[in-house]
Amino acid sequence: MKYLSRYLLICLLFVSAQLHAAEESDIRVLFVGNSYTYYWNMPLAVTLMAESLGKNVYTKQSTVGSTNLEHHWKGEMETQTKMLIEQGNWDYIVFNNHSLSPRDIPESFKEYSLKFADLAKKNGAKPVFYMTWARKHNRLMQPTISNAYREIMQESGADLVPIGEIWMKSISYHPEKNLYAIDDSHPSPLGAYLTALAFTKYFTGESVQMVPNQLFINDANGDKLFIAMMLAANADFFRDLVDTWDMKNTKNN
Q: Residues near 225 by Cβ (< 8 Å), separated by ≥ 6?
């Protein structure tokens, strides 16, 4: 019983700390999407990167593997995204559609992207679209993906973080820095770190040069849980790449 009480106390303290962090945050962000968002704890990496720059960015996810925005809109596959948007008091909502949606179901991609952008604005949040990347075996997909997201950006008035284009630029300079997981689709730890850097740059407006190579949180025992561990050469290149990217072209006023 003593150990159970101690465990419950730790849980209560953790929840209290999370709620306090949310209340004290300068920026509240909801990430909506699928495994392209949750691989390697990317939203948490954004929080930790922003913290290293002296910024408070609270992040929460509404993510289910293999979902597209139509699933999220209809509450399918156990998603609860619309409720979270309506109840969350978010500053930004980042929308990650399925990576093949722009090519395979372009009508649905456009319809539900616009619906979610409108819902975000009605609830006081800035909609932000997360442009995904082409599969490793077919990088010719990228222009189709990019064009679809830029059309949504213009039509909806949303912002856009062009992760896919940043990935393609990284690959053009250093193809040996493998951004892809073993399935040639999802992000590797390097790909997730680069993605988080770009979102950190977008949310904070700051140079990412001071973001550390290693990101970690402390567990209930005070031990480090590592979220990212980058070689210095990889982290240096990714930071320079993101800092030289023109983010002004990604924002609608």
A: 216, 217, 218, 219
